[in-house]
Amino acid sequence: MTTPHDPAHDPALLAKAETLIEALPYLQRYEGRTFVVKYGGHAMGDPELARDFAEDIVLLKAVGINPVVVHGGGPQIGRMLKALGIESRFVDGLRVTDKQTAEVAEMVLAGAINKELVGWIARAGGKAIGISGKDGGMVIARKVQAKKPPKAIEDDGEPLVVDLGFVGEPDRIDTSVIDTICAAGMIPIIAPIGVGDDGETYNINADTMAGSIAAALGAARLFLLTDVPGVLDKDKQLLTNLTPGDIARLAQDGTISGGMIPKLETCVHAVEAGCEAAVVLDGRVPHAMLLEFFTSKGAGTLIRAD
Ligand SMILES: Nc1ncnc2c1ncn2[C@@H]1O[C@H](COP(=O)(O)OP(=O)(O)O)[C@@H](O)[C@H]1O
Ligand SMILES: CC(=O)N[C@@H](CCC(=O)OP(=O)(O)O)C(=O)O
């Protein structure tokens, strides 16, 4: 004989219901708002994580939030350049981009990766439109000049200005293309490529692109998915809340370094220019974004203006 299953006393089912109820105030507060999510090239290698990511994005859309995805693809560009016998060189974390490299970057970002992500969203039951910053004249880029680190300072004491070639940063953003896609019930997937006033194609760092788009949209959140649990202190403990002032101190005392510096500069720019808050979180954790957003515990590091 079997005992009939009693859902009212099943602890696992009750826990699921509690999790949904815990999400209710967040759903009410953010309905109709925009979340910009940067999905980095490192996180894309694992198909299970890509599937989880797509499900999270489709869930956000289903509950009335407008997700806007900006993706990277640095490792994938590097592999394609290598296969073509072209060397990759980085200065200040930015890829030195000659004409041929710009063509490869556009092919990999706006072609292969962009359409792969559109496919993942479709498999999760959503509708995505894949575009780059060039489409609809959305992102007009200006050329970036990099300064080499202090050790490269020349004899006359002046930092050596390096010509990065066709590396850009957003100068002007027309958000009407994004608004149109969102209003049609679809999810924009954006490759970090822009066009200059000179008509040239510019390769834009994906964090920078996401931050500028979040600021232009006045997004409720900018999520930057990376390969660490968030910003860590000198004892490797997670710093859960930071302001631009805290970030300046952490940069000065050397707590943050490498790729985390431009990433946090992007967050500071975004929160000071109209985005409500930015979050650096671990893209290797399944459903990290949902945990951060829909539970009271949160995850990762939240950055708000002072
Ligand atoms: N204080 C810090 N906390 C966390 N990560 C840090 C810190 N300082 C430097 N980092 C480095 O920043 C890296 C994240 O930046 P980056 O490699 O540019 O990420 P992504 O490729 O995901 O854009 C981490 O993998 C880590 O090595
Ligand atoms: C100018 C510049 O460096 N552009 C980046 C664009 C891709 C990117 O940023 O990808 P991830 O987020 O995966 O690193 C590049 O060429 O690698």
TrEMBL record:
- Would you name any one GO CC term? cytoplasm
Which Pfam family would be a valid example here?
AA_kinase
| Domain Aspartate/glutamate/uridylate kinase positions | 34-280
Principal localisation: cytoplasm
Task: Supply the name of the protein.
Answer: Acetylglutamate kinase
What protein family does this chain belong to?
A: Belongs to the acetylglutamate kinase family. ArgB subfamily.
- Reactions performed catalytically: N-acetyl-L-glutamate + ATP = N-acetyl-L-glutamyl 5-phosphate + ADP
What does this gene product do?
Answer: Catalyzes the ATP-dependent phosphorylation of N-acetyl-L-glutamate.
User: Which amino acid positions bind substrate, per UniProt?
Assistant: G73, G74, R95, N203
Q: In which pathway does it act?
A: Amino-acid biosynthesis; L-arginine biosynthesis; N(2)-acetyl-L-ornithine from L-glutamate: step 2/4
Give the species: Novosphingobium aerophilum
What EC class does the entry list? transferase
- Cell compartment(s), UniProt: Cytoplasm
Q: What taxonomic lineage is listed for the species of origin?
A: Bacteria, Pseudomonadati, Pseudomonadota, Alphaproteobacteria, Sphingomonadales
| GO biological process terms on file | L-arginine biosynthetic process via ornithine
For this UniProt record, the keywords arranged alphabetically read as follows: Amino-acid biosynthesis, Arginine biosynthesis, ATP-binding, Cytoplasm, Kinase, Nucleotide-binding, Transferase
- EC numbers: 2.7.2.8
- Gene Ontology molecular-function annotations: acetylglutamate kinase activity; ATP binding
Q: Where is this site: Transition state stabilizer?
A: K38, K263
